[in-house]
Amino acid sequence: MLDRCNHHDLSMLLYSFAKNASYDRNIQQLFESIGNHIVAQRQLDDFTPQELSNIVWAFAKIDYHHKDLFESIGNHIIAQRQLDDFAPQALSNIVWAFAKIDYHHKDLFETVANHIIGHIVLVANYNEQVIAMIIWAFSKSRSFHVELFELLTDHILQRDDLDDFTFISLNNIVWGLNQFTTPPKELMEKVLNAASKHNDLGNLARLAKKMFPDTKEICWDQSCTTCGRHHINDIKLMEVLLQRRLERMYEEQKGMLML
């Protein structure tokens, strides 16, 4: 039956199952069969950039690591040299997928980073999801590309606010940058201001764990009643606490630099 499917059919079949189906053994068998079929019988040149993006995204979404397929697609993208045909969302989906399944394809990430840096003008059109996925993916894969991180950080700082960023995107940005360096105070304040406007104590607590991973005196688990640490159950108090903690963190950092 797979022989009768065209390239678009195969990519959409994977995408649809990954998005809607339950993750059971039959799904993994199906994905393995399609992956084997693509590697053995299809020319990757015949797939569009969006179709390649859908394929790796789908495998990563169900946490299935098809090594031969990912290696083939990663090498194919590198060989293209010019990635102008890849939309920002397609590129972010690709690096996200490789990072999600812990496939550390160093050359692929370097190629994508160089492409983004070489098209700085286009970065202004990246939406919040694309930015967050790229930062998260490069950090998760331990691909700390300094120039890329600085470019995306500057892009975030140039925005008036981050009110259109979801909690997931805010979490991914803060977590990703914290793996690489201490994010600029201005960026952290933008994140905190945007998160506070959502008026969601639980999500704010989860974001706080990303912003201040080494915090010991406060328990962010809202359901915990036994640890003996201080728990925050009021969102306004939480906002004040986070702002004070942010200021203290950068004061401590400033003091260490003076030493």
Summary of the model, kept short:
By secondary structure, the chain is mainly alpha-helical.
What is the fold's blueprint, element by element?
Elements: H1 7-20, H2 25-41, H3 49-61, H4 67-80, H5 88-100, H6 106-117, H7 120-123, H8 128-140, H9 146-158, H10 167-180, H11 185-196, H12 201-211, E1 218-219, E2 230-231, H13 235-258
Parallel strand pairs: 1-2
Helix pairs in contact: 1-3, 3-5, 4-6, 5-8, 8-10, 10-12, 11-13, 12-13
Describe the protein's architecture and organization.
This protein is mainly α and 259 residues long. The protein has a domain of 79 residues. It has 13 helices and two strands; from the N terminus they run ααααααααααααββα. A two-stranded parallel ribbon has the order 1-2. Helix 1 packs parallel to helix 3, helix 3 runs parallel beside helix 5 and helix 8 packs parallel to helix 10. The relative contact order is 0.07. The model has no long low-confidence stretch (mean pLDDT 85).
Spell the H/E element sequence: HHHHHHHHHHHHEEH
What strand line-up does the widest sheet have? 1-2
Helix content: 55-70%
Range of strand content: under 5%
Calculate the mean pLDDT score and round it: 85
